[in-house]
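Recall that a protein's primary structure is simply its ordered list of amino acids. Everything else, from secondary elements to tertiary packing, is in principle encoded there. The following example makes that idea concrete.
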Amino acid sequence: MYDAIPYDSYDRVIAVGGGAIMDLCKLLGCKRPDTVHNLYFKRFPVVHEKDVIAIPTTCGTGSECTNISVAIVKDEKDGVLTGGETKLGLVSDDIIPNKVCLIPDLIKTLPYKPFACSAIDALVHATESFLSPHRKTMTSELFSEKAMDMILKGFKLIDEKGQDARFEYLDEFVTASFYAGIAFLKAGCGPVHGMSFPLGGTYHVPHGESNYALFGKILEMYDEYEPAGELGKFKEIVARCLGCTKEDALRTLNVTLEKVLPLKPLHEYGFKEEDVKAFALSVDANQQRLITNSYRPWSIELSERVYKECF
């Protein structure tokens, strides 16, 4: 994109598309780096110079209002390229779009699976923000709770009436995605996102789908650690929206999500047994900004356990 669009040929950027388009167009509003690799490995400053107007065509990434740009880049260890690739997030308030325009009609032609993946991604954003122990604020809690409420009610509608029921609820899905974006701008995401990045980067699994592959298992581990507290409040929200008991909330959530999008084991994406250790080490080395927001203290061993049990 840098090669195709000379920097002096435009005064502002209008980003129309999904998460990848949003994330890359946010960079087009900034000072050009020497290399994209050095930008993502924080060897080049992020400096906002041109306005960016974000118009999302999915209902999940929240990228239209966040300070994060995610890209697949060449991986390195101790400054040496490994020959592999990974997903990294570049974080800077200088890349927050200047304006956002939400147009629900743009979601009408989105095929069902990308719709489902993006909507689940928004649910994960809201959930991880709600459970974030260090960065959670009154603002993030309000927006994450409202986003979860809207998305879960939309999923219940799809469960009861079928996939086409989404067309009567597109305004709510687009708005909920935006709310979830505001929530994780404030409170951050956690291990679901951190662990999904090497999976998506290595095997090119769509972002929302890679999050979904790990989401339920990580919630189970949170439930083992502290079933009350903020997770207890989360289960109350799920129970209210899906019409079940608090005790049955996580099971009902998993069943509902399976109705929205069937869950696949990691090996169906190409994930191998040797990836368990390698991915866990990569998460520990490259995704601390996310891991530190875990509801429970996280470790390499817990990452390995999640990957093994999802295999």
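The beta strands are 12-17, 51-56, 68-77, 80-91, 99-100. The mean pLDDT is 94.
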